[in-house]
Specification:
Elements: E1 20-22, E2 29-31, H1 56-64, H2 68-72, H3 76-99
Antiparallel strand pairs: 1-2
Length: 115
């Protein structure tokens, strides 16, 4: 029995023709001026690394504010969903940590050991 995986990328990029270029991620032939690949997540200009573009303060902000890193990478909907989901979770954690008294309360006076 032979199983063929159709969604797997090709082992080698397809040969280029005059006005086409292979996608850097999946090897699918695209027009030379294409801005993104319709088969994978490649976007022109997104192959650059974040080093050199982001300062240390920006990295700290991305770490503190949930979803901000997603928005920075261009995934706006995912970033907004992370932000909207983090607000109720943050309120719950705050109330659980500070808003509810402990159930086990030590007695007012220490009665000492009783035998």
């Amino acid at each position: 029995m032979k199983v063929e995986y159709t969604d797997a990328p090709t082992a080698a990029p397809e040969p280029t023709t005059g006005d086409k270029m292979p996608c850097p991620y999946c090897g699918h032939l695209l027009p030379r001026d294409a801005g993104r690949c319709d088969r994978c997540d490649w976007v022109r200009g997104a192959t650059q690394t974040a080093e050199g573009k982001a300062s240390d303060m920006v990295a700290v902000m991305f770490s503190i504010i949930p979803g901000l890193g997603h928005i920075y990478k261009g995934h706006i909907l995912a970033g907004l969903l992370w932000m909207l989901g983090a607000i109720p979770v943050g309120i719950f954690v705050f109330l659980a940590a500070y808003g509810i008294e402990d159930r086990v309360v030590p007695p007012e006076t220490d009665e000492g050991e009783e035998y």
